[in-house]
Amino acid sequence: MAVQENRHLKTGCAMLLAALAAWGGAAHAQQVCKEDLRVLSQPRDGLTLLEKYKDEFKALSGASFNIDNLNENDRRTKTRADASTVGKYHVYYVDEANVPLFAQSKWIVPLAKYYPADYDYADFDPGRQKVATFDGQVWFAPLTGGGDLLVYRKDLLEKAGIKPPTTLDEFVEAAKKLNDPANGVYGVALRGQRGSGANVWRWMPFFRGYGGQWFDGDKPVFDSAAAVKATQTYLDLFKYSAPGTKTGGWDESTGAFLAGKVAMLVESTPLAGNALDPKMSTVIGKVAYLPPPTPLTGGGYGHGLAIGAKANKTEEAKKCAGLFVAWATSKKQEQRRLAEGQFGELNRTSVLASPEFSKRYGADLGKALADTGKVTAVNFWQDPAWPDLGDRWGIILEELITGSRTDIKAGLDELDAYAKQLVARRKK
């Protein structure tokens, strides 16, 4: 009996040692980082929160990380300079506007191969996935982003007997009926300020919704009936837009809504979080959300983390950077950001659909975000020359909005000629 017990003990010990060895091997296999990672970013609450968990990443990877933060414009300049020359940084914070340039220049590497499968990239909001994709490949993991929501004052619509609009025609009619300047309330709030990320950004869902396209290969095709119709509709809506918005941007448009002066607007999803923040909003408890009215597309945008090419010369280094990107954008990190109330940095469908999200922000907002993700599109021209072309159209569009220019088709003709110059310049 003692011999049998001894055999069982030896067998059990052997199995335990084998299990420990396997566990140790698996843990050791994940120690893929040989040096601390250098990350170039801009200030984000989620990344600041990440600093608290450096020990967690070190235990996972075998190394730590250091984040250098710059304001947005300086970050763009330095990222471009570093990525194209010395390559000091292993991970770059990138945004939708510079991904085409970075990808075509091979300053960053495709992400999918180095993003561990168990971190579930497919869990990201579909709209953010679209924005992170260029030329058929994924280039970054989202830290922030979104599409568009119809955000409206349910109390004002109920008082006027108006159902929440689900089509653009209904939206225009509701704007007319709800416009009441005598009592300090305006039907809508738009963006008139020039810029590819200002008036053009809000105009593009109309353009794409009416069937407009920017280019067919290298041939500009935006000088179309769809663009004329989109522009005319956008201009007409300014009749009911809050004061200051004809030359205003995000701050003026959303500020008017948060101050209680606007009945409804279609804006980027961070507004939804602001409308629930007592430090910013006077309309808490009066707001509801829907996807953009048909046929408007949601204006997809996204910022996130990408793997630098020059600093990560080996496959091992790329795997290390990929592990950091995956860990930094993981479900666990999003759950931590949710607990801290960092609404603008929630990107995963599992988090947006969670009971914790509903408890904090309401089930109707979670459903609206899920629904708008399905219609979110990349509305801009995915090309390194986009900011140049978009900003030129922003100048023309502002002139049309303010009335210093009146011929929509002539403005589009002018932009078409400019686009052809951009393409010809690139071919030289």
Strand content: 5-15%
Poorly predicted segments = 1-29
Characterize the main sheet.
5 strands, mixed
The top-level CATH class of the largest domain is Alpha Beta
The Rg value, from CA coordinates, equals 25 Å
**Termini distance?**
89 Å
Question: Helical amount among residues, as a percent range?
Answer: 40-55%
Count of helical regions: 19
Structure write-up:
The structure is a single chain. By secondary structure, the protein is α/β, with parallel strands linked by helices. The chain has two domains: 32-145 and 301-352, D-Maltodextrin-Binding Protein, domain 2 (3-Layer(aba) Sandwich); 148-299 and 370-427, D-Maltodextrin-Binding Protein, domain 2, CATH 3.40.190.10. Helices cover 48% and strands 13% of the residues. It has helices at 2-29, 45-50, 54-61, 72-84, 99-104, 126-131, 154-160, 168-178, 199-209, 225-237, 250-258, 270-274, 315-328, 331-339, 349-352, 355-361, 363-375, 386-402, 408-427, and strands at residues 37-41, 65-69, 91-95, 133-134, 137-138, 141-146, 148-153, 215-216, 219-220, 264-268, 287-290, 298-299, 301-307, 376-377. Helix 18 runs antiparallel to helix 19. The longest helix is centred in the first third of the chain and has 28 residues, at 2-29.
